[in-house]
């Protein structure tokens, strides 16, 4: 078994795909397999894949039934202990980052790193440390390009729900953490990757919210009303300012309270 299966899905994103592939094949850490699932691109993406085919463990270019169908294809091909989804346009932060990640023996079901994102001006910004609480998951999720998932979790929980278009990774993490109580470790000093500024979830907020509500209705029905209320408060300016103040004061409080 290899340590890590990196899975890249792509559809008509030739330039982003090449950037992603280069960040993987140039890693100093070698205990990986690389899987590329292309949705039948017609923009030259296949030619890019063929250019690097000697460094790609498995690739296919064929029509699929959406993002999660493509991701599931990758999972079914994966043989690594962990899976990492690095979609086209996302890329690893530097050539040594996987070596640094696995310098220490890792056993947890989920390894959660930090990541970068570009702001509207094109500047690279550091995304905050991830907190694993049910409250945080009401409005957020784990970053797909900075979270390693034990492959056997997909055997235990199941593959991504292909009925959703946007939130199936969020649904999977919710089920793993809050139903199956999967072990996790937040590596707050390692920036693993850089993600594109906006993912698919930003393109249709109404669909995003509706799919989240459907997941809660099916798996956490008692939290539906809480979701509506918390969504309102956590997106309000007053709440965000209060939350920022708490995040500043808590470390200070720990210096005086034992």
Q: In words, what does this structure look like?
A:
The structure is a single chain. With 258 residues, this protein is of the alpha/beta class. The protein folds into 2 domains: 4-219, Spore Coat Polysaccharide Biosynthesis Protein SpsA, Chain A (Alpha-Beta Complex), CATH 3.90.550.10; 224-258. The chain has helices spanning 14-25, 45-51, 67-77, 97-101, 134-139, 151-157, 168-178, 205-219, 224-234, 237-256, and strands at 4-10, 32-38, 58-61, 82-85, 91-92, 110-118, 124-126, 147-150, 184-195. Helix 1 (14-25) links the parallel strand 1 and strand 2. The longest helix has 20 residues, at 237-256. The mean pLDDT is 86.
Please tag this protein with its features.
single chain, 258 residues, alpha/beta, Spore Coat Polysaccharide Biosynthesis Protein SpsA, Chain A, globular
Strand-helix topology:
Elements: E1 4-10, H1 14-25, E2 32-38, H2 45-51, E3 58-61, H3 67-77, E4 82-85, E5 91-92, H4 97-101, E6 110-118, E7 124-126, H5 134-139, E8 147-150, H6 151-157, H7 168-178, E9 184-195, H8 205-219, H9 224-234, H10 237-256
Parallel strand pairs: 1-2, 1-4, 2-3, 6-9
Antiparallel strand pairs: 4-8, 5-9, 6-7, 6-8
Helix pairs in contact: 1-2
């Amino acid at each position: 078994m290899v340590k890590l299966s990196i899975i890249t899905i792509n559809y008509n994103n030739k330039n982003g795909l090449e950037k992603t592939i280069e960040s993987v094949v140039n890693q100093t850490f070698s205990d990986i397999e690389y899987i590329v699932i292309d949705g039948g691109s017609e923009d030259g993406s296949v030619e890019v894949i063929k250019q690097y085919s000697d460094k790609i463990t498995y690739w296919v270019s064929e029509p699929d039934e959406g993002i999660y169908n493509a991701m599931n294809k990758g999972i079914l091909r994966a043989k690594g202990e962990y899976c990492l989804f690095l979609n086209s346009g996302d890329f690893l932060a530097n050539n040594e980052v996987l070596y640094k990640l696995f310098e220490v023996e890792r056993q947890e079901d989920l390894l959660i790193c930090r990541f970068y994102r570009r702001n509207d001006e094109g500047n690279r910004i550091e995304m905050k440390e991830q907190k694993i609480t049910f409250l945080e998951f009401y409005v957020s999720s784990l970053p797909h390009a900075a979270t390693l998932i034990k492959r056997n979790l997909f055997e235990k929980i199941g593959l991504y729900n292909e009925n959703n278009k946007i939130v199936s990774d969020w649904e999977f993490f919710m089920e793993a953490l809050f139903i199956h109580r999967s072990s996790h470790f937040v590596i707050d000093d390692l920036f693993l990757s850089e993600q594109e500024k906006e993912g698919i979830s930003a393109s249709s907020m109404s669909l995003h919210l509706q799919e989240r509500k459907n997941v809660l209705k099916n798996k956490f029905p008692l939290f539906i009303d809480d979701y509506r209320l918390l969504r309102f408060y956590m997106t309000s300016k007053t709440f965000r300012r209060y939350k920022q103040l708490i995040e500043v004061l808590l470390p200070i409080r720990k210096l005086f309270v034992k």
